[in-house]
Amino acid sequence: MRRLLLSLVLVLSTLTSIPAAALATTCDLPTFQGAGTDARLTSLFTAYGNDNGRLDDWTGADGTYSVRLPDGKELWVFSDTFLGQVNPDGSRPPVKEEGGTTVFLNNTFAVEKRGKLSTIYGGTPEDPKAVMPPRDKDHWYWAGDATLAGGVVEVTYQEYERFGTGPWDWRWHRNVVARFSPGRLDRPISVHDLPSDHKVAWASGIHRDARFTYVYGVEDLGSTKYMHLARVRGSSLLGTWEYLKADGTWSRNQADSARVMDGVANEYSVSRVGGGYVLITHDTTEVLSSKIVAYTGCTPYGPFGNKTTVYTTPETGGNIFTYNAHAHPEVAGPGLVVSYNVNSFVNTDHYRDVTIYRPRFLDLAFG
């Protein structure tokens, strides 16, 4: 049964940093009905990743954002990516830097057309490069969400930097947006700075709704992560940004950006479902949680409540962890299509078993 948000206002006020009364409205909230594996996307990426027809294409990645191109193709946006071959036993050679043949890039694309995938990277087949190349060896870009603006693809990236010699001596540095022509996706047309003054990584998710494009960010304090929210009028992220304040109003001053709620991951999504909105995220209120949770709200800026566990990732355990679940509302499926990533704390696991470092796809049903 659907519930009215007003009945949750007092509960939500304990979940959000912004007072629920400042944002409260009413709607028919979506209710979770069930989850299952998305068979089409699972089969598509499994077959493509294992196919050795080419030895310069995708065998695994994380990130897994998507946007529909003007010609109807689906653009899949990845961060760290393996390119190369898959051995008959389901392993892959080590990366070139470790004496193997596998190429490792910090960001790539894949284009889906009529049920077939193709990999896009920069450089040449002999010397592949990231589609968003770093400025030097101590910096790199990981992808955020993407949007389409006037026929141009706008992909957000977070730049990270090394500051020491240890394996964990790296940190977030700034946000940018790269603009790509749909007909030439191997390199950006231009790159532009995005707001970066207050340690919020934009964009964990992007949602276009009526007059505004909403841009969701994360303030990552390690064990605690806070949602932040900005918006820009129209479809391009190059417009004037406004930030959601603690009183529920909007400000053009980055310093006014409020902590909307905690418990979100570095990647999450807000999507229109029926008469309301669904926030999908890994549950970061628990350490290395296997839980994917949904919150519901009546607006794209919340408040979000009615926390519900919608899926428990079976891969989690031992060296293996899962992370960064988010929705793909433009992708057709029996329900709301959601992806999540799988990884290992032991680097050699990625060579032993190619299936570890690949996205998983779900269909979530809401009524």
Ends distance? 8 Å
Count of the domains:
1
Give the tally of β-strands: 27
Provide mean pLDDT, rounded.
Answer: 93
Please indicate the percent range of residues in DSSP E strands (runs of 2 or more). Answer: 35-45%
Low-pLDDT stretches: 1-16
Structural class: mainly beta
Q: What is the H-and-E element order?
A: HEHEEEEEEEEEEEEEEEEEEEEEEEEEHE
* Overall 3D form: globular
Please state the second-level CATH architecture: 5 Propeller
Q: Per CATH, what is the topology?
A: Tachylectin-2, Chain A
The CATH class is: Mainly Beta
Number of helix segments? 3
Taking the sheet with the most strands, its summary is:
6 strands, antiparallel
Radius of gyration: 20 Å
Share of residues in helices: under 10%
Task: Give a structural overview.
The chain has 367 residues and is mostly beta strands. The chain is 5% helix and 44% strand. It is built from 3 helices and 27 strands. A hairpin with an 8-residue loop joins strand 25 and strand 26. The longest helix is centred in the N-terminal third of the chain and has 12 residues, at 39-50. The protein is globular, with a radius of gyration of 20 Å. It starts with 8 loop residues before the first helix and ends with a strand. The model is unreliable at 1-16 (pLDDT under 50). This is DUF4185 domain-containing protein. Residues 1-22 form the signal peptide.
